C-alpha cells in the first residue's frame, strides 16, 4: 500500500485520494500530487490580489486592522517594509512603526 504524503498546509497524516486530487479531512485543503515543492521548505504566500510575496518585500495594509491591547487600529494604507514570511495562520512577521513587532495575515495586505 502506498504511503500518501502529509497535508502541506496542516501536516495532517490523514490524507486521502479523491480522483486525481489529494484531500485533507482536517483542514479541507486539496492539492494535486507533485504540486508541493520538491524540497518542501519553500513557502508560497500570496497577497489579497494574488501576487506572490517574498521575504524583504514591502506591503500595504488594505483594511483597518484592530490590534489586541491597543486602542488604535492599524490604518488602511499603512506601509510595512521588510516583511518575513512564516508558516501558519498569520503568515507575515513584521515591525510596524508605532506598534512594534507583529504578525499579519496575507489576505489583508497588497504588494507595494
UniProtKB/TrEMBL annotation:
Sequence ranges assigned to domain Protein YjdM C-terminal in this UniProt record: 45-112
One Pfam family matching this protein: YjdM
Location of the Protein YjdM N-terminal domain: 3-32
InterPro entries assigned: YjdM, YjdM_C, YjdM_N
Signal peptide segment: none
Family from the record: Belongs to the YjdM family.
NCBIfam families reported for this sequence: phnA
Cross-referenced PANTHER family: PROTEIN YJDM, PROTEIN YJDM-RELATED
Protein name: Protein YjdM
Annotated source species: Clostridium bornimense
Amino acid at each position: 500500500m502506498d504511503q500518501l504524503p502529509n497535508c502541506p498546509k496542516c501536516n495532517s497524516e490523514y490524507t486521502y485520494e479523491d480522483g486525481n486530487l489529494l484531500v485533507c479531512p482536517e483542514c479541507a485543503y486539496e492539492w494535486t500530487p507533485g504540486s508541493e515543492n520538491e524540497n518542501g521548505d519553500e513557502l508560497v504566500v500570496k497577497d489579497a490580489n494574488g501576487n506572490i510575496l517574498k521575504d524583504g518585500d514591502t506591503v500595504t495594509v488594505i483594511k483597518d486592522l484592530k490590534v489586541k491591547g491597543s486602542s488604535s487600529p492599524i490604518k488602511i494604507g499603512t506601509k510595512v517594509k521588510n516583511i518575513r514570511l512564516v508558516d501558519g495562520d498569520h503568515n507575515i512577521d513584521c515591525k510596524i512603526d508605532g506598534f512594534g513587532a507583529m504578525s499579519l495575515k496575507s489576505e489583508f495586505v497588497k504588494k507595494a
